[in-house]
Amino acid sequence: MSPSEFERAQRFKFAADKTRYLTSHAALRRLLQAYTDIPALDLVFQQTAHQKPYLATGPAFNLSHTNTHVLIAITAATPVGVDVEVCDPTFDGLALATHYFTPSEIAQLKLYASPTAACEMFYSLWTCKEALMKADGRGLSIPLSSFSVEIALDSAQAVSNQLPYKLRRFRVSETHLGAVATAVTINNWQFFDIPPALFTERVD
Fold first, then answer.
1. What is the CATH number of the domain that holds 122?
2. Is 43 domain-assigned?
3. Which of 17, 173, 193, 201 is the least buried, fewest Cβ under 10 Å from its Cβ?
4. HSE (CB half, 13 Å, CA atoms) of 112?
5. What total number of domains does the chain contain?
6. Range of 165's domain?
7. Could you count the other beta carbons within 10 Å of the beta carbon of residue 194?
8. Would you say residue 82 lies in a domain?
9. Which helix (H) or strand (E) holds 132?
């Protein structure tokens, strides 16, 4: 990994956050090495005006992590954004949504009385919105309430009429939900699990 990545890792207050950052970025470099045939240590990341990292020669990629899970997307065709979140049924998603979601998204949440379904809807909306902002490249400079996402819980598809990206949502594990946004429709999706041993190696 680069000196700047190690330097950034040292800024984390908690050891778990430091380890999560280092292992996820090491995994990203190893995966990009496989796609580019460039040694992981020789990969040079550049940044957009909004500080989104990219490789000048491609492929496009994006990374997201939360507690025990890391989600990485790689594609040759298009800008991409991803998000992964743990689905916590005890969290009051509706209360947060009233501050950050659009009226149509709040209406979608209110359709579900079941805590399980309400939890899935909230985190599906949240991950889709995060993935959209990251694909766009402007990140949190785009207000969450400035665009809407429409979701059907029986479908992997989601739609936003304000931002020109294609959305796909999915379950990462029994407790985690994920979403990916791309600028064009991608029909050939492949999902892989990174070996858990990669995330238990010692990080000095």
1. 3.90.470.20
2. no
3. 193
4. 20
5. 1
6. 60-204
7. 16
8. yes
9. helix 115-136
Task: Name residue 89's amino acid.
Answer: P
Instruction: Let me know the angle formed at the C-alpha of 62 by 56 and 63, rounded to the nearest 5 degrees.
Output: 135
Buried/exposed 160-188: b ≥16 CB within 10 Å, e otherwise: beebebbbbbbebeeebbbbbbbbeeeee
| 23 within a domain of the structure (yes/no) | no
Contacts for 115 with CB less than 8 Å, ≥ 6 apart: 89
Q: In the block, which residue shows the tokens 């819980």?
A: 153
pLDDT (tens place) for every residue of the chain, 204 residues total: 788 888 888 998 898 888 888 888 989 999 999 999 999 999 999 999 888 999 988 999 999 998 888 999 999 878 999 999 999 988 889 999 999 999 999 999 999 988 889 999 999 999 999 999 999 988 778 889 999 999 988 888 899 988 989 999 999 999 999 999 999 888 888 888 877 665 555 444
Q: Tell me how far CA of residue 146 lies from CA of 132, 135, 184, in angstroms.
A: 12, 16, 21
Q: Is residue 38 part of a domain?
A: no
Is the bond preceding 195 in cis, omega lying within 30 degrees of 0? no
